[in-house]
TrEMBL record:
It comes from Pseudomonas kulmbachensis. Keywords: DNA-binding, Transcription, Transcription regulation. This is LysR family transcriptional regulator. Residues 1-58 form the HTH lysR-type domain. InterPro entries: LysR_HTH_N, LysR_subst-bd, WH-like_DNA-bd_sf, WH_DNA-bd_sf.
Length: 299
């Protein structure tokens, strides 16, 4: 049994006459009769009782008709949905993105990709840096958007833009009047930080270790949004990429550049096979050109 036979059966069922059904289907009457006989043979049931004037559907025909209609309707809707893809190869790309760069990049990227490649299905996964690199190596991700350079051998990076860690404090914090905060000053502050699995936390710990210090962790949260929502109600500080301020600019929070030294961040596209992903890398980099060269962030 196939969709063609179902379509023929529905026509005969609705017309109640092979001749009229054949005319509706634009095929010969003998050919239609043969198709119905083959369908009955395949299903091993009798679908019509034949009289001199019309065909009378059996109980089996009623049952088949009720199942055939939604099947044929679904087939037609599938054909219509795929009509726009004629001549186009539907392709899926899986991208892993750090939570700390997600809001400043993904919304703009998705719209640009949709306009440039409407037949490209983009799957976005918000992951830690460790998980992005693991999935790139095992092949479950095509591209990562992470901090450079990659830490795992066999991965390659392409620069998108530069950022830097900034100190984020409540508006009533003792350091509110400072234009900049030195790394050694920040090291003394009790902090609300992302967990140790996050790359921003690891970068911060490395910077403090270079000074022989450790972060003064008072609390941890696993989302940047949760940290920014919590800070105004505490006396704690945190460190986050400065670009995040553009999407989370809250008057209850102050963003202070770090100095002595600055803590630069390089955000880029990461992949395992540059040659295989060259076209995708180039597409994403081109579509995010204005993101890679933003106006200077107000300090």
């Amino acid at each position: 049994m196939d969709f063609k036979q179902l379509r023929y059966f529905v026509a005969v069922y609705e017309e109640g006459h092979v001749g009229r059904a054949a005319e509706r289907l634009s095929i010969s009457q003998p050919a239609l009769s043969q198709q119905i006989r083959q369908l009955e043979h395949t299903l091993d049931v009798s679908l019509f009782e034949r009289s001199s004037k019309r065909l009378l559907p059996t109980l089996a025909a009623h049952t088949l008709y009720n199942h055939a209609l939604p099947l044929l309707d679904g087939l037609q809707r599938a054909k219509e949905a795929l009509h726009n893809f004629q001549g186009q190869a539907l392709r899926t790309i899986a991208i892993g993105v750090l939570q700390t760069v997600h809001t400043s990049l993904v919304p703009q990227m998705l719209e640009r990709v949709r306009q440039a490649q409407p037949h490209l299905v983009v799957q976005i996964y918000e992951l830690t840096g460790i998980e992005i690199e693991r999935r790139l190596l095992n092949g479950s991700l095509d591209i990562g958007i992470s901090y450079l350079p990659p830490r795992q051998p066999g991965l390659h990076g392409m620069m998108l833009y530069e950022d830097e860690l900034q100190l984020v404090i409540p508006a009533d914090h003792p350091l509110r009047e400072f234009k900049k905060v030195s790394l050694s000053q920040a090291a003394e502050l009790p902090m609300l930080l992302l967990g140790e699995e996050f790359q921003v936390r690891q970068i911060w710990q490395t910077q403090l270790a270079n000074l022989g210090r450790r972060p003064q962790v008072q609390a941890e949260l696993n989302t940047m949004a949760g940290i920014l929502d919590s800070l105004p109600h505490s006396k704690l500080a945190t460190v986050l990429p400065g670009r995040s301020r553009q999407q989370h600019d809250d008057k209850a929070l102050l963003w202070k550049p770090l100095s002595e030294p600055r803590v630069p961040l390089k955000v880029g596209l990461v992949c395992r096979d540059v040659q295989r992903q060259q076209a995708t890398l180039g597409l994403l980099r081109t579509l995010l050109e204005d993101v890679m060269h933003p106006q200077a962030t107000t300090m």
